[in-house]
Design goal:
54% of the residues lie in helices and 12% in strands. Helix 5 packs across helix 8, helix 12 runs parallel beside helix 14 and helix 15 runs antiparallel to helix 16. It is built from 26 helices and 14 strands. It is an alpha+beta fold. The radius of gyration is 29 Å and the shape is elongated. A hairpin with a 2-residue loop joins strand 3 and strand 4. Among the domains are: 115 residues, Arc Repressor Mutant, subunit A; 134 residues, TolB, N-terminal domain (Rossmann fold), CATH 3.40.50.10070; 101 residues, no CATH class.
Length: 597
């Protein structure tokens, strides 16, 4: 009978699986199969005693030697193992249940001693890969980091999967030689088939992994997969105390860059391992904030603000938390959830604080650019966007912001060029394609805009913003009933809000349904007593009703409110009937847009 030390240096092979006892890892065709520690111990015990019944009490004593646990714990681990081994409800080719007694491992097992050269080196070695080719690293120019899968985690840890992926994406985005898909692109990626996910995201490589937490420890099991041939380019397991989560992020970032054979500049290497806080609690709060922000809902943004403010209270010098807080406040203003006069000064303060700590933080420059929209400081806005892009060419959101800015300055060709750069970084984003259609709409290139929207619908047939732009195009083509249908469809998906209601009221008026347009005005007035409703929305309905003086009164109020809906003043076709009026020219002068026309 083998001693414990001999067993620990054994490899057990069955089917496509290899169980490495010394490294406590299960491989399938050379790829890591993530397992919780107790589940691995359960499997190892069954495999070592293969062919023999292992009674439940003996198995529990072996796996939980110094703990009192219930039988349900063992059953849960058996369920986990069967899922990992691919066993169906009736197909028990590996683990057999002996009712009321225990379990038996029934598959044939080949056992061999592990050679010294095979010993896994936690610091630098690769796990075995399914395929080795000399071309493995050729033309690897893009990567997607999928949200990590959580194993056995409770609700309190749900943020970790997306949070750590987001942290890695931020770090890897500093590599100019590699295109990194943003968090917004990968947050809903389907993990079941990594190859399909990679192809959908249009990348050469995918980084996937699992996260386990127990007591005060965290384990990350990670692999980098080539989408071309499914080969594992690099894989590793990291075990750290939770207080040293930074070490995991540092190691993964550096080793992924090495696996991609990227030659780093000194600045890139510095950015790859740069930490904006060394406080674990502050970093956890930041990760939670990113998790909730990516939900893209009012509740999500509100919750993210709470966590970013918590991160700042714990570590006031965390520049990324200040920058993220600025982005949250900008989002509240841009989506009419908070008045610009309330939200944008807070955003500006947070962005400036971030830059006082970290002058070269791209996210802070982009957020500062957004916050300056509130003051009509166009040259300063452009400067900040360009700085953000210069500091991080992979920052798709900065390209998107800059494209929208260029649209409003009537620099349509430049805007479309910037939109294409953003789309190149995030090719499956319906938001970015719809934004390009919006630019074509403002340029009066309606047929091209429709073509762009049709491509958007190929990505997401129900994407509400695409239907919103289609409705606005139909209005300009005097296809009012089609426009009404599109607006109503947008509202059915997106929900009723002041912006959609106002544009629906505008087209009601143009189509002769003036009573319905007036009803919309009344609803907006009633709603304004309960929440912020931009004055521009009542102005646009009055334009449709041909009540120009009233429309100008609301536009003047919008200027006083610093209503962000005035930013497209120079390019919005909906306002064409007002352009010859001196009051309109005065508005362009007040907002600083006249010099751009």
């Amino acid at each position: 009978m083998k001693s414990s030390s001999e067993r620990d240096n054994q490899l057990y092979e069955f089917g496509p699986f290899c169980l490495d006892a010394s490294e406590r890892v299960l491989l399938r065709d050379g790829r890591v199969v993530p397992l919780p520690p107790k589940a691995f111990s359960t499997l190892l015990t069954l495999v070592v005693n293969r062919g023999r019944l292992v009674e439940k009490d003996i198995l529990m004593e072996k796996v939980w030697p110094d703990e009192f646990v219930e039988e349900s714990n063992l059953a849960q681990h058996i369920f986990t193992l069967r899922k990992a081994l691919g066993e169906s409800g009736v197909n028990r080719k590996y683990i057999e249940t002996v009712p009321r007694r225990g379990y038996r491992f029934v598959a044939p097992v080949t056992e061999r001693r592990k050679e010294s050269a095979e010993v896994f080196n936690e610091a630098s070695a690769q796990l075995p890969t399914r395929k080795h080719t000399n071309e493995r690293f050729v033309d690897i120019q893009s990567i997607a980091v999928l949200p990590f899968e959580l194993l056995g985690a409770g609700p309190q840890d749900e943020y970790l999967g997306l949070g750590i992926a987001d942290a890695l994406i931020t770090r890897l985005s500093n590599l100019r030689q590699v295109k990194v898909r943003p968090t917004s692109a990968v947050r809903n990626a389907i993990r079941d088939d990594v190859i399909s996910a990679g192809r959908a995201l249009k990348v050469a490589t995918v980084l996937e992994g699992t996260i386990q937490t127990w007591d005060e420890y965290i384990r990350a099991t990670v692999q980098l997969v080539s989408i071309q041939d499914g080969a594992t380019l690099w894989a590793q397991r990291f075990d750290e105390k939770f207080t040293n989560i930074f070490a995991i992020e540092d190691s993964i970032s550096e080793q992924v860059a090495a696996a991609l054979t990227v030659k780093l500049t000194a600045r890139e290497h510095e950015q790859l391992v740069k930490r904006y806080t060394n406080n674990t609690e502050a970093h956890q709060a930041y990760l939670k904030g990113r998790y909730f922000f990516e939900k893209r809902t009012r509740e999500g943004v509100t919750k993210s603000i709470e966590y970013f403010m918590l991160a700042i209270r714990i570590d006031p010098y965390d520049a990324t938390a200040h920058a993220a807080l600025a982005e949250c406040y900008c989002s509240l203003a841009i989506f009419d959830l908070l008045s610009p006069n309330n939200a944008m000064p807070r955003a500006k303060e947070a962005a400036l604080k971030a830059l006082s700590i970290e002058p070269n933080l791209a996210e802070a420059h982009a957020a500062l650019g957004q916050s300056l929209l509130n003051d009509w400081e166009w040259a300063a806005v452009e400067k900040e966007y360009k700085l953000a892009i210069e500091l991080n060419a992979n920052y798709a959101r900065a390209h998107h912001y800059y494209a929208i800015y260029l649209r409003h300055m009537r620099r349509f060709d430049e805007s479309l060029k910037e939109s294409r750069k953003a789309q190149d970084l995030d090719p499956i984003s319906a938001t970015l394609k719809a934004a390009a259609a919006g630019t074509l709409y403002c340029a009066g290139r309606y047929d091209e805009a429709i073509e762009e929207l049709n491509r958007t619908f190929e990505l997401d047939a129900n994407y509400p913003i695409a239907h919103y732009w289609m409705a606005r195009i139909y209005v300009q083509k005097a296809m009012y009933e089609a426009a009404i249908t599109e607006f109503e469809r947008t509202i059915s998906v997106f929900g009723k809000n002041p912006e959609m209601s106002a544009h629906l009221g505008y087209v009601y008026a143009l189509s002769g349904r003036k009573d319905e347009a007036q009803n919309v005005l009344n609803e907006l007035e009633d709603l304004s007593s309960k929440e912020y409703v931009p004055s521009y929305y009542r102005a646009i309905v009055c334009v449709g009703l041909e009540r120009k003086e009233e429309a100008f009164e609301w536009l003047e109020r919008a200027y006083q409110e610093h209503d962000l809906n005035l930013i497209p003043l120079a390019v919005d076709p909906s306002l064409d009937s007002l352009r010859d009026d001196p009051k309109f020219t005065r508005l362009l002068q007040l907002t600083g847009l006249i010099d751009q026309v």
